Each structure stands twice: as C-alpha cells, then as structure tokens.
Amino acid sequence: MKNIKIGLIGLGRIGLIHFNNLKYQIPYAEVVMVADPRHKEQFKGVVVGTAEELINHPEIDAVVICSPTNTHADYIDLCAAARKDIFCEKPHDLSLERVITTLETVKKAGVKLMLGFNRRFDANFKKIHELVNLRKIGEPTILKITSRDPGPPPLSYLKSSGGLFMDMSIHDFDMARFIMGKEVEKVYATAAVFTSDEVAEAGDVDTAVINLTFMDGSMAVIDNSRKASYGYDQRLEIFGSNGMAQADNNKHDSHLLVDQEGSHGALPLDFFMDRYEASYRLEMMAFIEALLKGEGLPVDGHDGLEAMLIAIAAKVSVDEKRPVLLKEIRNTIRIKAL
Amino acid sequence: MKNIKIGLIGLGRIGLIHFNNLKYQIPYAEVVMVADPRHKEQFKGVVVGTAEELINHPEIDAVVICSPTNTHADYIDLCAAARKDIFCEKPHDLSLERVITTLETVKKAGVKLMLGFNRRFDANFKKIHELVNLRKIGEPTILKITSRDPGPPPLSYLKSSGGLFMDMSIHDFDMARFIMGKEVEKVYATAAVFTSDEVAEAGDVDTAVINLTFMDGSMAVIDNSRKASYGYDQRLEIFGSNGMAQADNNKHDSHLLVDQEGSHGALPLDFFMDRYEASYRLEMMAFIEALLKGEGLPVDGHDGLEAMLIAIAAKVSVDEKRPVLLKEIRNTIRIKAL
Amino acid sequence: MKNIKIGLIGLGRIGLIHFNNLKYQIPYAEVVMVADPRHKEQFKGVVVGTAEELINHPEIDAVVICSPTNTHADYIDLCAAARKDIFCEKPHDLSLERVITTLETVKKAGVKLMLGFNRRFDANFKKIHELVNLRKIGEPTILKITSRDPGPPPLSYLKSSGGLFMDMSIHDFDMARFIMGKEVEKVYATAAVFTSDEVAEAGDVDTAVINLTFMDGSMAVIDNSRKASYGYDQRLEIFGSNGMAQADNNKHDSHLLVDQEGSHGALPLDFFMDRYEASYRLEMMAFIEALLKGEGLPVDGHDGLEAMLIAIAAKVSVDEKRPVLLKEIRNTIRIKAL
Amino acid sequence: MKNIKIGLIGLGRIGLIHFNNLKYQIPYAEVVMVADPRHKEQFKGVVVGTAEELINHPEIDAVVICSPTNTHADYIDLCAAARKDIFCEKPHDLSLERVITTLETVKKAGVKLMLGFNRRFDANFKKIHELVNLRKIGEPTILKITSRDPGPPPLSYLKSSGGLFMDMSIHDFDMARFIMGKEVEKVYATAAVFTSDEVAEAGDVDTAVINLTFMDGSMAVIDNSRKASYGYDQRLEIFGSNGMAQADNNKHDSHLLVDQEGSHGALPLDFFMDRYEASYRLEMMAFIEALLKGEGLPVDGHDGLEAMLIAIAAKVSVDEKRPVLLKEIRNTIRIKAL
Questions:
Q1: Average pLDDT for consecutive 10-residue bins of chain A (338 residues)?
Q2: Which of A301, B144, C241, D322 would you label with B305, given CA atoms 20 to 30 Å apart?
Q3: 15-54 of C, contacting D, C-beta below 8 A
Q4: For residue A179, is it within any domain?
Q5: What is the extent of the structural domain holding C102?
C-alpha cells in the first residue's frame, strides 16, 4: 500500500493531536507539510508552508483542517478546487448557508469530506453503537446523553464559539444520531446561565437540557453543563424494547479507598484531551484507511449538517420557548441536492 | 407512649403490606379493625368491619386508606368528619376538583392527611435528599430520574388508572419536588406507545420523557417506561454547582460472574413490592411517629396536590405538543386557601 | 400441612432474631415455649419454661438452641433423648470430643441436627454456590474469602469464645466447604494481634490469613480481622478453569456522590444483624421446611464437625508454625461411625 | 537539558515497546543505536550494531537491555566496565549467585541499574502506593494480590523461564514490597498444575497461592494462575488499621448491557501489552528523568534481588511443603556489601 500524504493546517490544541497521531502512530500516513502562522520553515522535521501552498501541493492527497472555525469553509472550497480529500474539525462553519455551499462544492468536486466527530471512535460509545446494531437492546426508544465540561472556556472563546448548542452540544447531537440510527424530527430545549457572568455577557447559556424526538416517536435527552466541578463527564444510556446499555465515564484509575466515611474512588479524566486521546487517533486512522481503500467515510459532511440543524433548532426552541421541528429549520434554507 | 390505634381499609397488595408492617413491625401501632369486602369477621386475628364502622370506631385514632382510588376522597371526607387522622394511598383522586375539596375539608376539620409517596423513605433516595440538603453538590441544577416498570398492568387497570402520568409518573413528580426542594414552573412531555396494543386501546401511553423547569430555571428530566425487559428500574442523578449525586438501582444480589463473554451481574429487584419493602415500613413508621409526637407529616395533602398538577400539565403538554405552565393548570380550578 | 411446633432456648441477640422470624415471618412454624432466665411466665405472648420443661414438652417437635455455647451439647443430648429435632447455633461445643459424642447420640436417636451456619442462606453466597454448581466457572481452583468484623468483642466474650478460628473463622471454614464442594486436606495459618491489648490478654489473635488446601490440590485463602474500621466486610471470590465469580459486600445504600475529591459511596452494613437479617430468616425457613417435608437438612452436624476440625488445625498451624493435615487432627480423636 | 543518549539491546516484544517509547514519546531521550540479530544496519531510522559496539559506543549514556534473560548479566557486566547506566528487563538472571556478582560489579563501577518492574508505574497501583504512604488506611496489615495471565506461554518459553515464581510471581513479590513498604520474613506457597500437560512437562506449576509474612507480622497473599479464561487479571487490595484500598482490573470499555439475563460488562484488557502500555512509558520516563537529574532510581538492583529471594523461597516452600524464612535463602549465598 502506498502512503497517504497529508497536509495539516492549524497546530493548535487539536491540530497538534492530529499531527502527532499522523506522524508517529498511524501507518500509511505521512505528513508532508503543515501550515500555521506560529511556525516557520520546519515543525518537528516537517516543512511549513502557507495554507494555499499546502492545499495546492502536488504531492498532498488529503488536507486536515484544524485552523479557526471561520477559515474552515474557505479552505474546504480551496481543497475541493484542488481535488484534495478533506478532514475538517467541527464546527464546519457557523453559517448554515455557508455549510450548504461547501457541501455542494465538495460534492461537485467529487472529493471526500470527513467531519471531526471523534467521539464516535471512543471505545465506550463505539461499543454501545455496536450493541444497538446487534439489536442487543431491541428497538431503542429512550436515549440519555450526559455531556459536561469541567469548566467554561474564556469569554473570548465563548464570543466566537457559536454558542453552547453549536460548540458543545453538537457532539451530542451527532452522538444521538449515531447511537439511535434514526433521524430527529423535533427539538425542545431549556437552558440557563448558572456558572459565570462571562457566559451571560457572551449572550450564551452554560446549562441545558435538550429533548430530541425522532421520526418514529423515540426520544433522546441530552443534558449539558459547561462546568462539572468534578471534571469531564461523558456518559450515555440507551433503553430499548429488550434491554438497556450504558457507557460510564472514564476515570484516572480504578482505585477504591474504603474508610470510616465510606468508599472513595478516582476523579474522571480531566478533559477531552485525556478522555478522547485514543478516539482522536482512531478517528484519523479511520480517515486514512477509508482513503486507502477508497471506501466511504464513517462521518461525512451530511452528518455535520444534520447535527448543525439540531443545534439551530435547539437555539430557536430556547428563544421561542417551544418545540421546534427540524423541517422548520430546513425550510429556512435552500437545500438542494444534498 | 400510648399506642396509635389504626383502622385499615382495603387489603389488596399495598393494603397487605401496610397491615403486616402495622401489625408486626411497628412499635406503638395497633390495628384495631380492618375493612375489606373479601374478608369476614376476622383477618389474622383482627376484627373485620365496614369502612363506615371502622372510620367511626371510637377507639381508632387514624385510618389507613388502601381501597380503590375512586373511594379515597369519600373516605377522607368521612375521616375528617369523624376527626380521624388519615394515611391515604396515592393517587388521592383522579379529579383535581375533588382533591381540592378534600384538602379543604381536611384542613377545616384539623385532621392530618399523609399521602403514600413511599419512595421518599427509600434508603437511596433519602440519602440523596440528605446530601442535597447538606449542600454536598452545591446548588442543584439538573435532576434526572429514571423510573421504569417491569411490565404494563392489565388493560382493566390501565383504564381506571388515570393514565401514565397520574398513575406512575406521579411518584417521580413527587420525587423531583422532594429532591430539588423547589417548585415546578413549567412542564414539557413527549410520550408514545411502544409496548402493547392494550395501552393504546386504553387511550394511554407507555413511554414518556418529561421535562420540568423549576422556578429558578433549574431543570429535571424524567424518563418512564411501563416495560423494562430487565426488571424494575429506579434510579436518579442530581447535578449541582459543586458536584453530582447518583442513586443506583437495587439488585437481587451483588454477584459478578466473569467469563469469556465479559462480566455478568444480577438483575434488579422485580418490582415495587421487593424494591420498596423497607420504604413502606419506614413510611408507615414515620406516620405513626408523627402522630405520636404531634408533629407535622413528612408528606401531606399539599404534596399530593402539587404532584397531581404536574401530572395534569404533562398530559396537556403531550396533547397540545407544547410546554405548559403549572399556573395554567392552577388557573383552571378554584384553589382557595391551600 | 400441620405446623412445626418449636421450643426456643435462649433469647440473646441471635435467639431474638430466630424468635421473631419463627413467630412473625415463617408460615407453618409456631413457637410453643421459650426458655430464658431473663424472662418469666410470658415473652411476647409465648409461655416461658425451663429448658428441661421445654425439651420434654409433649407438643414440641423441634428445639432451637441459642443459649451459651457451654450448654449446647447438654441440650442436644437432652433433645436426642426426648426425640426432638434440633437447630443449634454455632459453635456446637468447644471440645471436639464432646461434639463427637453428641453427633453419635443424635445419630443413634435418629433425630435431626442443623447447625447455624446462616451465611449459606445469604443471597450473595447462595448465588455463588449456585453458579459454581452450574459449572459457570468450570472447575474451581482458588477461593478467596474476606471476612472482617467491625470491632473486637469485649474481653469477657473473647475469653470464652474459643478463639478467633473457632468463633469467627469457623463461618468461613464452612463457607469454603460449601462453595468449593470439596474437603480440606491441609491448613496453614498465620496470625497476629494488631487491634487491641485485650485480644492479647485473652490469649487470642485478631488478624489472620488461613490457607486451605483441598484434596484435589485446589486452594482457599481466608483473611480475617476483628476490626475493619469501615464496618462489616463479607466478600468472596472463586476462580476456576472457565471463569471467576465474586460476591461483593452489602452497603447501606447505593448512592454515589461525585465532587472535586472524587466519587464517594456508602459504608457497608454495620454488622451481622443487618447484613445477615434475611439469611437468618431463610435459614430458619429451610429448617422448618426440611422438617415438614421429612427431607435432609441443608447444614448438619457433620458440617459443624468439619468446620471445627479446620479451626483446630488452624490453631495448631499458628502455634507450630507449619502446615497441618486435617487427618492429624482426626487422628487425635476417636471418630467412630460418623 | 541535554538529551540522554540510549542504546537498546533486543527488539522483541518488550524491546519494541521501550524502543517506541524512547523514540516517539519521551522528551530528552534519543535512541542512538540498537542491537538485535534480526535487524541489519537500520531499524526505523536508527543505526544497528552489535551489543558490544553499542555498549562501548562513546556517545551512549545508558543501555536498555531487553535481550534474552541468559544474556542480561553479561551485558550488565560489560555496561559496568564501560561506565554506562543500565535499564535491565526482569528477570535479572536465573542464578542468584550471578545476580549478586552483577550487583557488586555495578556498585563498584558506580553505574546505575534499574530493574524493569513496570507495574510500579501503573496508575492503579501507583495510586494505592500513594494512599498507603499518605496513611489513608493506617498501618497496613493484610495485602492481597491477584495476578492471573490469560494463558500459559509455550513449552519452549516455560522451560527457560525459571518457573512460575521467578517468571510471573516475581512481579507480585516486587509489588508486595512496594505497596507494603516492608520487608518479607517468611514465605509459604502451595501450587498445582491445573491448566495444561505442557506445564507439568516443563516441571513447572501454573496455579499458586503464596503467603508472605512481613517482619512486623503483617501478611500478604498472592494468587497466581497462568490461565484466566476471561483475560488478564491484575488487582490488589490492602487492608490496614484505618481502612482498605483496592485497585480493580482494567477493562476494554465501561459499557454495561442490562437485559433479561442480568447486567453484562466488558472483558478485561487482553494482556500486559495493553494493560501496562502506559506503565512501560512512565517507567522509561522515570529512568530518563532520574539520569537527567542525577537522582536515585525508583527500582534498583536491590529490589530485583529481594524479589528473587522471595521467588526462591516460594519454590523451596512448595518443594518442602513448609514455610521458608528468607534468611534461609540468604544464608545459602555469599551476600557481601549489598
């Protein structure tokens, strides 16, 4: 097998994770060039260029986009024009219209686009997905996702994040579709600010409960908080006609101390860098393997779009204090051949 | 201390539990008379009479009402007239108007009325209540209650049950108020029939997700199913500014078998008779003790009314596909001095 | 079915448990007379007599012996003479010779003798026994029993207890035989005093690890402590050719509090009165049922003897710092037709 | 800080783990040369040489020895002569005499020698060690280690392994010393062959229970099996005057499936390559850091010797069916200035 030659744009927190995985952990991947204004000429032995040089580099097969959100859509368009396959970190773009146009562009160009919903590759959630697919719980009827961050991001981040639903819950919306294997019909959300004045200042919320109703009447409930004092909390439970499956949170270790106060166990892993370390690697491996084998991608632009529609519906639901049908959101935009 | 002399009406499933607890397990309680059309003259050494004889028996201090729901309100009125304290199984009555009149009657008569929300006395939920009160999780913001029965009741029961929200979820509505220590402002519910045609035939639902929004913006989510294939499922989780507390389900035993397929543990306890065996005893003890000490009851008529209002709002929410404010329900009825 | 008429000797802690179970919880059992010097004429509506009156009471079918250990053997002999079936609390007697003679007497008289190894009726251990019998773990090769008390008994008790192995570990020796379904060949024990000077003063030990080697080379390890600071600890694990089974300890409740320090769960149940409440009831039910059906007893005098032989071997092992064969102990006594 | 320049001998299973960690994961380490007869000239961009060339390479600071056991001692001697610090995989050597001479040589040469007891760096066991050191359980009195492999190695391996105690249990002997923080006085072991004829053919055992008595009378019990049908099992529990601490096994994921049969969780991780992946990395990091800072090593030659003495005592105990004092083993050898 020949290697997949990669160009990687953006060496921030997530970009570095992907870089290290591509360079040291994934066979058949080779990082040919990186682009990041913070680095010149060389980064860990890899040539540094501009994003445009990188996208148009003749040896590069695929581009991994980890730059700020507001650049994603433009780079996708450039990649499509250069006939490069694309891995793009979420969110795709904060504008639904813009997302639609990139999807059209990508489709016309015949290039592949994978969205960075890495949690699908987490051992726990992958196992639940597998159990559901094997019909171990029968027909799924109630899904419950708990997704809580250890602390709110800084005000600067909040202001450009697109808000809780678009920035944080969007992972859970994708997870809901992934695990249930069904499409969402209706969204109802309640939300509040409980953690910090900065969140209110950014016009955002930090605590939310979101109900999804699927086409067949089955239901999902997602609860989000920007601040779980005890750390990162990522769990889910799915209930069906023949049983239930749960994925518990991951902890630092498995110790249990029992003393006169009771039993005491470890804290959860701190944040996504620890919790999803393996899932980032497996996600990128899946991308590389799909390219190598010429197969379909495990998460694509359509998945990104659907999660985004749910996020928008949740926002409308909170603003208008009512359940919102996904087709209301769809109707507001020109969705062509997707 | 002198004994509390009890008359007990109704020796069905729950009535028998209360009878055995009062007779064999609770000091200072004495069952003087029982009333049940299925028994004549004597039941386990206790005199059998009619409900009216029992309520007006001069030696009886308090009446425990476990007869069919449609008799509750009338017996409460008779007890009030006879100046007897009352323990009444839930639901109080299916008519909100009728519930209100009994509460007024009881208040005027100056007798005590305790509602059978036994789950408040369950070791797990009591502990969570205690942790919340001790501010161990800080300010509570998200409550999640899972409450699933092992199988739907027969059609005959369903038809006169008042529906899922009034019959089953009502325990969870009380639990939500008990644990959060706050009052509900708004209810949104989605529901479906997934388990049996009989449920649909009875005009009822068997699966529901109910969102409660409290006065301060905090939230609760209740998920109910009439049929958990694996048995009775009673759990909750409460999240707050400083932590989280969970109450797990109770199992037959603590075994873990580990073989080539993985690890395997016990099933949950079968149904409420097993799971809440101790809570029924502790509930009745609390009733007897409150009477002995002349203290306030741990669950009273007001608690019954509030849970009922939430149940009605949930029904309206499903019917009208919208969030319903509790005050909408309150406004539909004449609520006087309660 | 006619009732089994019971006489009960000794209304101490354990005697009371058996009394309440026989009187209120077990159908087909009827307590006709009790004997206890602390009570005169009547106890909870039951006639009080002397032990001798009770044993020779013509209506009594079976005698439950809960008096001090040093009276057990004499009462067993009297019961045998009076042709009464016997339930005797452990230990049977501290003298091996005396145990042997009662077993011979009982055998000759053709009466039944059940020993109070109540833990066999605990839901957890019964389940493990069942899993082993169903060959769920294949052939058992390593058994590990943890058995720790919450605190040492008073000096007065220690002095007449027969020592840690005979008083406390004896339950674990019975459990080892029960779960493994094999006989012990060899015992090696190490022990120490770690908890209190009183234990040393009584010439006893409070902490021990006891190795049992079974006839087929399989092994058991028992660890005992008189003082687990966190409460009563009763667990086991059995490993075999096809898997492993564990029974965890029982806790006050199932709560889990998660805060910035980690997760925190409940303490174990305080002591045997709480932990084995149900097993005492089920044990006595099994005794009554075996008598009613004329069937063999689930735990008999032979089981008592075997556990005692192991206890003696453990003591010799500690004293002589060497492994001790059970047949060495057997050879020291005249064991006839048992 | 300047890099530590490493030569690595032996690229088998463990050698590769160390190689990848040193090359890709550990800052300040640089692999300058490797030696392995299976590779010529270059291995993943690193020069290949002979062991002798490598040990005497002027740029190399430290040598990591992962070659077959029977070469360890000779390479250690050569490293000492060349004044290179040493990381040596366990076992050090199968001959106690030879181990002693290398320790003397190393000491005289003033070089550092770290033994590969990687489990000390496992998150679970490290946490238990920390809790014990913080006196969270008071004074430790009973330690229980469970250590079971998923399946016996091939006959060829067994024959040159040194036997169960020297090959497998030796990790547990080190763990016992590490966790208890005390020295062993006496060993008693029972063992058997339960898994395969090959084990017997190799003159080895596959199942063992080993009791350690420490100088202060506290106790440890280790149970080993070469074949746990359910996978790799690595747990421990330590009991002390003020509490207990447990480290549970690590599993593939945290899922729980609950169906009509009960609850079902994941299998443990397959074997040491998965379970101890992080501990190998952290172990090597600790080695590099100690060299960089000129500090003492976390596990040294003395630790290797003590574990070996326990292994030998266990073997003698099984052969002679008696407890064996460690000083008996010490007395059989010339132990000088160690």
A1: 92 96 93 96 94 98 96 98 97 93 96 97 98 98 98 92 96 98 98 94 96 98 97 98 98 97 96 94 97 95 96 97 96 61
A2: B144
A3: none
A4: yes
A5: 4-111
User: Which among B244, B247, B253 has CB closest to C254?
Assistant: B247
Q: How many domains does chain B have?
A: 2
Q: Is the pLDDT of residue D129 over 80?
A: yes
- Contact of D128 with chain A, judged by CB distance below 8 Å, is answered with yes
* C337 interfacial to chain A (CB closer than 8 Å): no
Burial of D173-212, coded b for 16+ CB within 10 Å and e otherwise, reads bbbbbbbbebebbbbbbbbbbbbbebbeebebbbbbbbbb
Best of C31, C137, C255 to mutate (most B CBs within 10 Å, chain B): C255
Residue C282 lies in a domain: no
B259 at D interface, C-beta within 8 A: yes
Q: Which chains touch A (3 or more CB pairs under 8 A)?
A: B, C, D
How much is the pLDDT for C337? 38
Out of C230, C262, C268, closest to residue A267 by CB: C262
Res. D336: pLDDT tops 70: no
Whether B257 has its CB under 8 Å from any CB of chain C: the answer is: yes
Say whether both B100 and B25 belong to one domain.
yes
- C1 reaches B (C-beta below 8 A): no
User: Which of these three, B64, B83, B111, is where a domain ends?
Assistant: B111
**Residues D152, D230 contacting (CB under 8 angstroms):** no
Q: What is the CATH number of the domain that holds C53?
A: 3.40.50.720
Task: Report the pLDDT value the prediction gives residue B334, as an integer from 0 to 100.
Answer: 61
Chains adjacent to C (≥3 CB pairs closer than 8 angstroms): A, B, D
| Same domain? D102 vs D123 | no
B128 plus B249 within the same structural domain: yes
Choosing from D67, D92, D111, the residue where a domain stops is D111
A160: domain CATH number is 3.30.360.10
Shortest alpha-carbon distance between residue A256 and chain C (Å): 9
Residue reference for tokens 């004329």: C294
Regarding whether D207 and D254 lie in a shared domain, the answer is yes
Is C249 in contact with B254 (Cβ distance < 8 A)? yes
pLDDT tens figures, D89-98: 998 999 999 9
Per-residue pLDDT, A333 = 75
In angstroms, the CA B103 to CA B303 distance is 11
| Res D293 pLDDT > 60 | yes
pLDDT at D320: 97
Contact flag D230-B260 (C-beta cutoff 8 Å): yes
pLDDT tens digits, residue range D54-63? Answer: 999 999 999 9
Q: Find chain B residues with C-beta within 8 A of A239's C-beta.
A: 148, 223, 225, 228
Q: Does B124 sit within 8 Å of C254, measured CB to CB?
A: yes
For residues B100 and B172, membership in a common domain is answered with no
Q: CB B258 to CB C244 under 8 A?
A: yes
Interface C-D: count of C-beta contacts within 8 A = 106
* Residues B74 and B185 both lie in one domain: no
Instruction: Indicate whether B288 belongs to any domain.
Output: no
- Counting Cβ atoms within 10 Å, is residue C141 exposed (0-12), middle (13-18) or buried (19+)? buried
Euclidean distance between CA atoms C308 and C171, whole angstroms: 10
* Residues D158 and D220 both lie in one domain: yes
Segments in chain C below pLDDT 50? 336-338
Mean pLDDT over B232-257 rounds to 97
Beta bridge partners of D46: D43
* CA–CA gap between residue C105 and residue C103 (Å, rounded): 5
Q: What value does the mean pLDDT of chain A take?
A: 95
| CB-CB contact of A86 with A62 (8 Å) | yes
CA-nearest residue of chain C to B248?
A: C254
* Record: contact A254-D249, CB cut-off 8 A: yes
Question: Per the domain annotation, does C57 fall within a domain?
Answer: yes
Q: Is the Cβ pair D262, B263 closer than 8 Å? A: no
Bridge partner list, B62:
B6, B85
